[in-house]
Design a protein that fits this description.
Largest sheet: 6 strands, mixed
Helix content: 40-55%
CATH architecture of the largest domain: 2-Layer Sandwich
Shape: globular
Radius of gyration: 22 Å
Order of helices and strands: EHEEEEEHEHHHEHEEHHHHHHHEEHEE
Distance between the termini: 45 Å
Strand content: 15-25%
Number of strands: 14
Oligomer: single chain
CATH class of the largest domain: Alpha Beta
Number of helices: 14
Strand order of the largest sheet: 6-5-7-4-2-14
Bound molecules: alpha-D-galactopyranose
Mean pLDDT: 95
Number of domains: 2
Low-confidence stretches: 280-292
Length: 444
């Protein structure tokens, strides 16, 4: 038997805003202009699809990062966080280049830098204090919560006017992604930032990552009411160390890009739509019902074509080819599962929704190979305990799992996982109570 599993409760807006404000005043001896908050996210299905122009289905967590901020007239930035309140990081935006800022300060500083790089010269320096209850390094997008809360605060502080509309927020998302990619050196595909900035409470967003879509085209709000469906979503953080910038994520990404090039398409979404029948994609045309079935490639035929191209054009070894086809099979099938899940969950067919979560999890484990033993044990245990479905969520290589369980069973299933962890000699996991929560907003 293991210790009782800790459930990390959200801080709540009043407490979060108080903590960020107090830290601000103590650190900078003045009052902040305001307090803003942005949530972490959990992705229900559609994993490692965003950078393949695919589909994802995240919800915003009730766990948020709070930022108290005041603009400055000069270009200096001072940031502090309640993780280490004694340490105020200072940077000057003038002359700053990609990768110049090290450590956590790269994330908020990078947002101001990115906005200026995007041509918003009115963005200047600022002082900011952070307080967060989004677990760090757990695959729940604590970094997006930080960059998105900063982007929204800077939008208000320097009157950019983007934060009040969904289309405007897409610009702020661009700055948040640029900060993470170019200043912090953490590869990210847009799922996390879109979830943090665009999810409505009680909804998941169906995020379509094809380039060039308008804001309206890229997101639909899908109602998600776990209680009405008689279920709970258990989010369990394995606490296995998780890192996206250790090369594995970038390696998966470049394999997908190489595969798309070998198949002669811009991205794997193009072939996914051909194979899956193009639900909701631009390539669906009204008169395609007769032509497509005979012409549409199957998953097998695409993988055969890829194998052939990889051998002849790419000069790849059998081992490399096998690995690449597994990665591509994950991406194509995973994109197809997103709309199937929306459909099943939307019709209250929880059995099917759960099976889709299982299929996604198995695909991530065996084809995309982004799990670690802690994730596998957690998923296996949740399934053995009767979850409708369970899978790792987020980038993988550590981090969290989700399990769709019958209402009232989260605690029990979490405890069984903790017991299994103790048996395997793993550290204690922790869990989060989760409902689909609201996007980033100003609190004070
Ligand atoms: C990380 C990245 C996202 C996405 C997921 C996997 O969270 O930041 O952009 O690629 O991994 O779905």
């Amino acid at each position: 038997m293991s210790q009782e599993v800790e459930f990390i409760e959200p801080m709540g807006d009043d407490a979060g805003a108080d903590r960020a404000s107090t830290l601000f005043t103590e650190s900078f001896s003045e009052e902040p202009m305001g307090v803003w908050a942005a949530p972490g996210r959990v992705n229900l299905i559609g994993e490692h699809t965003d950078y393949n122009a695919g589909l994802c289905l995240p919800i915003a967590l009730p766990h948020r990062t709070y930022i108290a901020l005041a603009p400055r007239a000069d270009t200096r930035v001072r940031v502090v966080s309640d993780i280490n309140p004694e340490e105020i990081m200072e940077v000057d935006l003038a002359g700053l280049a990609a990768g110049d800022v090290k450590g956590w300060a790269a994330y908020p500083v990078g947002v101001a830098w990115a906005l200026r790089e995007m041509g918003f010269d009115q963005v200047r320096g600022f002082d900011a204090a952070f307080s967060s209850c989004v677990p760090l390094g757990s695959g729940l997008s604590s970094s997006a919560a930080m960059t998105c809360s900063t982007a929204l605060a800077l939008d208000d502080a320097f009157s950019l006017g983007f934060g009040s509309t969904d289309a405007g927020r897409v610009k702020l998302i661009e700055a948040a992604i640029k900060s993470e990619n170019d200043m912090a050196g953490a590869s990210t595909g847009g799922l996390d930032q879109n979830a943090s900035m665009r999810c409505e409470a009680g909804h998941a967003i169906r995020l379509d990552c094809r380039p060039g879509l308008s804001a309206v085209e890229s997101v639909t709000q899908e109602p998600v009411d776990f209680a009405a469906a008689g279920v709970e979503l258990l989010v369990l953080d394995t606490q296995a160390p998780h890192q996206l910038n250790d090369g594995q994520y970038a390696e998966r990404r470049s394999t997908c890009e190489r595969a798309a090039a070998l198949l002669g398409v811009d991205n794997l979404r193009v072939v996914a739509d051909q194979v899956n029948g193009a639900a909701g994609s631009a390539s669906t045309s009204n008169d395609s019902s007769e032509a497509v079935p005979s012409a549409a490639p199957t998953l097998d035929s695409v993988l055969e074509q890829l194998t052939e191209q990889a051998r002849v054009v790419g000069g790849m070894s059998d081992e490399e080819i096998e690995r690449m086809t597994k990665r591509v099979r994950h991406v194509i099938t995973e994109i197809g599962r997103v709309d199937e899940f929306v459909d099943a969950f939307g019709h209250g067919d929880i059995e099917t929704a759960g099976q889709l979560l299982d299929a996604s999890g198995d695909s991530l484990r065996y084809d995309y190979e982004v799990t670690v033993p802690e994730l596998d044990v957690a998923v296996d245990t949740a399934r053995a305990e009767g979850a409708y479905g369970a899978r790792m969520t987020g980038g993988g290589f550590g981090g969290s799992i989700i399990a769709l369980v019958a209402a009232g069973r989260s605690k029990e299933v979490a405890q069984k996982i903790a017991d299994a962890f103790a048996d395997h000699g793993f550290g204690a996991p922790r869990a989060l109570p989760v409902q689909p929560a609201a996007k980033a907003e100003r609190i004070r």
